[in-house]
């Protein structure tokens, strides 16, 4: 099984809705740059604003508990009135003539299949955009500021190759200041640890594409992309047993759930997705996706000594157009779309809603135990980046790979770099909270 090429099998089954040409009304607000008074608390962190974590769907903002004004209102005292909030996840992509901030020659950490320039991607415009929230300016990612924020800390990335894609973007963005040394515990490529000596900062990757205990039952299966057994109520201790000491844990999952799967609960088969077995009910992707997050969050909430913050990095949609992933579908756009030109819907919407709902439940349980949960809501920003994928430039033309046109991962440098700007803003807020407490 290639961990590289997750194959969105379901694309075969569901009609892919065109992302473009659907409109929804939205009145974008342009507010002035908001400088929060919190910055006086820092010497090394020049700019900070409180982050209102709501989704662009605005499900029920009273439940989020992520707004610094709400969650620390009592501690904030006099600061309370002066802090404004900005939802950094609602916005538009705007030109950034300064980008990119690294290249495939300055950064060695780009995974081959995301090194789009190496494989001859002809256009470079996709690298030259930055995310601008509707209500504030997103500060540029300064590596030294990131390092100061995470000095003496550790971050774990738990998920699939898109999580690794995110981690490699971070390593490349930081590479202007320092490279890490490989501090991996063993030689397993799926579990890497990187250590930045100057800052006593550790990054770790934990491979867990389904977040729960899973096994490949058949490397072919009905769609020839593997058939996986998922134990939806069982922790994947490859990561759950390892993360207790981490300060920040970033959880994500996505495209592996589009492969055929058989679902187990309490050790018994309860259903499947596209397993093509007459005696097993097809419960669909979302059944498993929701329960996988439930179980992952339950594992974290069960850790006695966990003092860290858990981030849900939300689903990043794929962008196959003109056909299904295995029927000539491709992503050949060279520009982002505007928020009013696209809409989250169909399976993307269902998966997003599931993870958000499970997150809210976990957050409520966690709060009683002193566990912190936050959302890095990348879904809308990435929905607007059909131009950011490798397409056919993730390998040489003659290479026979499963996902020939890769519209799932993200070229580096590219729009996934913005995830680390989100991360930095959120980490600054976390540090701000602990200072204020
Ligand atoms: C939001 O959640 C609160 C608490 O569960 C509930 O009382 C309120 O009715 C909800 N609001 C909406 C708009 O769903
Ligand atoms: C970097 O990209 C260039 C094309 O811009 C390519 O010629 C070169 O082989 C790539 N280098 C590496 C190390 O990937
Ligand atoms: C490095 O950070 C760890 C926590 O991640 C801490 O226990 C340790 O004391 C730090 N070491 C130094 C030399 O600061
Ligand atoms: C379904 O039927 C197959 C044989 O056709 C059998 O091997 C399998 O155990 C059955 N599964 C369940 C859940 O009954
Ligand atoms: C979308 O918004 C842009 C401005 O951001 C505007 O120029 C364009 O006309 C809008 N398109 C639609 C279909 O509303
Ligand atoms: C590519 O690989 C698949 C299976 O791995 C095989 O069926 C197919 O014939 C191969 N195509 C080419 C052009 O080699």
From TrEMBL:
GO terms for cellular component: Golgi apparatus; membrane. Residues 138-426 form the Trichome birefringence-like C-terminal domain. The chain crosses the membrane at residues 31-51. It holds the Pfam family PC-Esterase. Its main location: membrane. It is found in: Membrane. It is a single-pass membrane protein. Residues 85-137 form the Trichome birefringence-like N-terminal domain. The keyword Transmembrane applies. It comes from the Eukaryota. GO terms for molecular function: O-acetyltransferase activity. Keywords: Membrane, Signal-anchor, Transmembrane, Transmembrane helix. Belongs to the PC-esterase family. TBL subfamily. This is Uncharacterized protein. It comes from Amborella trichopoda.
């Amino acid at each position: 099984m290639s961990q590289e090429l997750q194959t969105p099998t379901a694309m075969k089954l569901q009609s892919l809705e065109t992302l473009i040409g659907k409109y929804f009304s939205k009145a974008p607000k342009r507010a002035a740059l908001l400088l929060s008074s919190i910055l006086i608390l820092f010497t090394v962190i020049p700019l900070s604003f409180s982050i209102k974590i709501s989704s662009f769907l605005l499900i029920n903002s009273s439940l989020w508990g992520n707004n610094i004004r709400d969650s620390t209102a009592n501690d904030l005292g006099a600061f309370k009135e002066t802090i404004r909030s900005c939802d950094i996840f609602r916005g538009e992509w705007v030109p950034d003539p300064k980008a990119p901030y690294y290249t495939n020659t300055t950064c060695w950490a780009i995974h081959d299949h995301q090194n789009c320039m190496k494989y001859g991607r002809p256009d470079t415009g996709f690298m030259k955009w930055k995310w601008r929230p509707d209500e504030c300016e997103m500060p540029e990612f300064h590596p030294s500021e990131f390092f100061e924020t995470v000095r003496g800390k550790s971050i774990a990335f738990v998920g699939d190759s898109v999580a690794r894609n995110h981690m490699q973007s971070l390593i490349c963005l930081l590479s202007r200041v320092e490279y890490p040394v490989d501090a991996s515990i063993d030689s397993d490529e799926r579990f890497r640890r990187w250590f930045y000596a100057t800052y006593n900062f550790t990054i770790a990757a934990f491979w867990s594409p389904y977040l729960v205990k899973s096994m490949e039952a058949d490397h072919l299966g009905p769609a020839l992309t593997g058939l996986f057994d998922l134990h939806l109520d069982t922790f994947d201790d490859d990561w759950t047993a390892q993360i207790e000491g981490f300060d920040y844990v970033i959880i994500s999952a996505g495209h592996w759930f589009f492969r055929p799967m058989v679902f187990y609960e309490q050790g018994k088969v309860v259903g499947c997705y596209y397993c093509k077995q007459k005696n097993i009910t097809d419960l669909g992707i979302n059944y498993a996706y929701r329960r996988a997050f439930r179980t992952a969050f339950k594992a974290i909430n069960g850790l006695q000594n966990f003092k860290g913050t858990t981030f849900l990095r939300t689903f990043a949609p794929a962008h196959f157009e003109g056909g299904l992933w295995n029927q000539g579908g491709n992503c050949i756009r060279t520009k982002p779309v505007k928020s009013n030109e696209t809409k989250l819907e169909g399976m993307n919407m269902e998966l997003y809603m599931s993870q958000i709902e499970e997150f809210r439940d976990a957050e409520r349980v966690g709060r009683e135990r002193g566990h912190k949960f936050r959302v890095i809501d990348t879904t809308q920003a990435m929905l607007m980046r059909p131009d950011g994928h490798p397409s056919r430039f993730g390998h040489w033309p003659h290479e026979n790979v499963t996902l020939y046109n890769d519209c799932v991962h993200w070229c580096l440098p590219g729009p996934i770099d913005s995830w680390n700007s989100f991360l930095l803003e959120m980490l600054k807020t976390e540090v701000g909270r602990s200072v204020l407490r």
